[in-house]
Design brief:
Largest sheet: 5 strands, mixed
Order of helices and strands: HHHHHHHEHEEHEEHHEE
Radius of gyration: 38 Å
Strand content: 5-15%
Shape: rod-shaped
Number of domains: 2
Distance between the termini: 59 Å
Strand order of the largest sheet: 2-4-5-7-6
Length: 453
Amino acid sequence: MTRFRLPPVAATTPWSAGINLAGALAVLYGLWRGAPHTAAWALVVTAVGVAAWVARTALAVQQGARQRRGGPDPEAPGTGTHPAPQGAVEPAPQGAGVRALAALLLALMLLGGGLTAVPTQGLGTALLVVAVLVVTSEPANSPVVWGTAALAAALATATGAALTVAGLAGAVDVNVIGVLAVIAGLILAVVAGLGRRAQRVLAAERERANAEAVRAQATAHRVAIARDLHDVLAHSLGGLVVQLDAAEALLEAGDTERAAARVTAARRLAVEGLDEAREAVRALRGPEQGAPETVTPATATWTPAIATPDPGPGAATVDPAALSARLAGLLPGEDAATVHVQELGEPRAVPAALAEALVRAVQEGLSNARKHAPGAEVRIRLVWHPDRVECAIENAMPVEGAGGRGAGLAATGGGFGLRGVRERFAAIDGTVTAGTVRTAEGELFRLRVEARA
């Protein structure tokens, strides 16, 4: 069973508070002018209602000041999903005492306005309309609450009219048109309040949707950063480990010349990794003005006809030469005798997202082969179909129980690389398959990607 809770005091702006105070002063002025013809009890009840109006306006202004200082009230409708601004102090939720006081003041306005609407010749209608408007426009109030308030207002108005007919309201006669005007004002207040309530609910839903969109965008941004960091670090650091392991083995064998060549290759991989990390940071910060960096021509089995600058992720399309240059850039540091590349079909320009996905897929395939089957032969096959492009990277499966220098590197995998490849191809409606296959040459691990081009 849910516990009933009074709704919070909605915040108001100084401009709205000024309008309310002006209305209260206008009612007091009219009351003063009509005092000689009005019963004393009607004057007192109206004055109490006006005082409640002013006090409740002051509470709303105080709540608005709290929100401007420290963000929205955590318990206000539609604001519970929004954190306070950076550097601001989160305000404490409104206490039960404040809520009870606000409800009491609203009840005084409602009953006072209803009882005096006819005896004061319509002056109390202002209190009645404002109270009904506040109750019906508050999203935290259920239909039972604002329906009860509207019914209480109608009964109070009828009671005031009856007292006037009985001659207990001073020298004031009951005017049918005046009573109908009070009833019409009450109905308009209910309709206007419900319309304002719908606007508030819609605004709160829009704010929640915007907050969800911001959170989803931030999540996607974090995933993209993690994917790019993995793509950069796994390839460069994995290659670095392989080269250093080979250099260590050559030094133990006394072959210092070849060991020095391996160390040089390791240094080149470290420099390339730094360059790729800078490119990732530059892409995250946004495009910068200036000439693009050029890609160093690769001296591997995949040699592009033209060394073209990397077009970057913001380019609309990537031409075949630029794509070949980026793929070739992955091969220095690999053993040219163990990496074989085959390209079939007619290359053509592809969207930048597809080019990036292909490069990262080849990079991940090389990194996996280096981790789990160091020294094994790796085959890269890029096939240009008339309506799509397909790329397969396969390597021999490692021998069970084999240790050696590459065993530690195999334990560093977390599965994030293949997940990143799948995410990239899912974004362009491509497909990714990864797993072991049996061939005439034995068991192979194959990473195959495909997308429309």
